[in-house]
Amino acid sequence: MDAAGVLSPPAPAASPLNDRRVEQVIERMVDCYARPANGGPVGGHEYDPHAYASFGFSVHPDQGELMYLLCRALNARRVVDFATSVGFSTLYLAAAVRDNGGGVVIGAEIVPAKIATARRNLSDAGLSEFVEIRAGDARETLRAVGGPVDFALIDGWPGESGPSLSLQVMQVIAPQMRSGALVLNDNAESDYLAFIRDQASGFRSMTLPLKGGTELSVKAA
Ligand SMILES: C[S@@+](CC[C@H](N)C(=O)[O-])C[C@H]1O[C@@H](n2cnc3c(N)ncnc32)[C@H](O)[C@@H]1O
Questions:
Q1: Which H/E stretch holds residue 141?
Q2: Which of 46, 95, 71 lies closest to 153, judged by CA?
Q3: Which is the closest atom of ligand 1 to the Cα of 64?
Q4: Relative to the CA of 92, which of 19, 60, 155, 202 has its CA 20 to 30 Å away?
Q5: How many angstroms separate the alpha carbon of residue 7 from the centre of ligand 1?
Q6: Quick check: is 80 in a domain?
Q7: With the C-alpha atoms ordered 181, 184, 189, 194, is the resulting torsion angle positive or negative?
Q8: pTM greater than the 0.90 cutoff
Q9: Which range marks the domain in which residue 211 is found?
């Protein structure tokens, strides 16, 4: 509390990962974080994901830490990571699966150079054995993930027209999620939000004040 009696925010907690090896890879990636000079695909300049092979477009570390805690709470053993990019979200998800006693993070990524970078980052963090990255279009590669999904990240990519990639991938993943599974969406695509907020979808949803709006939803049916 300051002299005027106003409550000051507490200092942020230390990372819940509690693993220096993983945290060092995360810190290295945060230090290298860059945005493309053209503004990127959201700026509407170039949608081809192959044009951005060196850019992560990664989730915020706060979102990563939240996903780690949610996966621990769920005792998540099968997790979907759409998309992998250079492996930033994957690090948090794989650390949670490892700390739960084992399982698999199934990632999807269409740019081969990003898959190579993600594999290096996961190897440096000691988490490779908990991750399977499927190369190609997630709308195909995630059609059968091998069992009930406990947690999914839907962190998609903009397109020029038609349904968003996030909605299309969610429609592939939703039937594979167990009752009580959680899904977190980073980019708040309007058609994704319309789907997930419609209780006919079987989900219940809320918006968290993280990175300008992060949608967290539970498969309730
Ligand atoms: C926002 S980034 C994901 C960031 C990642 N979750 C992280 O935190 O580091 C979206 C990724 O989707 C990939 N992508 C675009 N279209 C795809 C598709 N059809 N299938 C799979 N991946 C795709 C892009 O190459 C890009 O790396």
A1: helix 138-141
A2: 71
A3: 8
A4: 202
A5: 40
A6: yes
A7: positive
A8: yes
A9: 59-219
In a domain, 71, yes or no: yes
Give the Cα-Cα-Cα angle 192, 188, 219 (nearest 5 degrees): 50
Model confidence pLDDT, tens digit, residues 57-78: 999 999 999 999 999 999 999 9
CA gap 81, 87 in Å, rounded: 9
What pLDDT sits at residue 221?
A: 82
Q: What is the pLDDT of residues 180-194, one digit of tens each?
A: 999 999 999 999 999
44 within some domain: no
Find the residues whose C-beta lies inside 6 A of ligand 1.
Answer: 49, 56-59, 83, 85-86, 88-89, 108-111, 114, 137-138, 155, 157, 165
Kindly list the strands in the beta sheet with 214-219, ordered across the sheet, starting from the edge strand earlier in the chain.
Answer: 131-135, 104-109, 78-82, 149-154, 177-185, 214-219, 203-208
Domain count, the chain: 1
Name the residue at shortest CA distance from atom 17 of ligand 1: 110
Token pair 């991750």: residue: 131
Give me the residues of the chain with pLDDT under 70, please: 1-5, 44
Domain CATH for 67: 3.40.50.150
